[in-house]
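Reviewer has doubts. Consider these tokens.
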Amino acid sequence: MSQHISDLIEDRFGLSTTVGAQVPAEGPLASILQRRTHRQYTDQLIDDDLFDTLLACGLSASSKSDLQQASIVVVDDPDKRALIAGWIPSMPWLAKAPRLLIFCGDHSRLRLASELRAKPFPNDNVDQFMNAAIDAGLVMQTFTLAAESVGLGCCPISEVRSHIDALSELLELPDWVFPIAGLCVGYPAREGFVSMRLPPSLTVHRDRYDVSRRAEKIDDYDKRRDQRFSIPEKAQKETDRFGVADFYGWSEDKTRQYSTPQRPDFLAYLKARGFGMA
């Protein structure tokens, strides 16, 4: 059992630390540090009142300039759930989770308000798209933290964007609304797992971006992570192109994943939905 915050930080990053060594491992900080990914759920349903409360918590997230450019589609229709799950057979938890939510960046309300108030809208650009995407991401993460605080488990599904046209048609998304990710929610059937993160020396910078020893730090991270969870040979990606690696760490896995184009039609989708992306 972890007794101090430092124990949870060590578990998260695989590195010894004195940070939080005097702070008990309890309360919201401890909950965040030990959060886990959950892909297996019990059959227990989520109380509707609790679920609506969690939605309210998610929508209480920070919002750029109070523009509130996020929307949530709760997918309860069993036929729609089955269809979405069928698109992504590698993720069976999509079909089995008690609730499925699709989080969307939503530019449509601001454009409607501009029409209603007879104001020009000269901001059809990439920055406005980013504002909506970030708002939606903040809402999803806030919902996730709220759900986990009451014993629920969550698993985000960005793979829904690989079926973005079909998903948008299925959910009848209007122009200027785009899905960023799905989220499975339910009571965990097992403990889940803590995903080890890159060391803060790679991701936290003081006054300037520090590029020193990055390759060495990535190698060290690969080794630490492999000691905790070694990726089996059958799970290696793109073996037809790159063969079977003797050592298959995080960086090998992710670079193989990104060695093929990822959703190259996304820009065309956004333009078709009304985004100028200037």
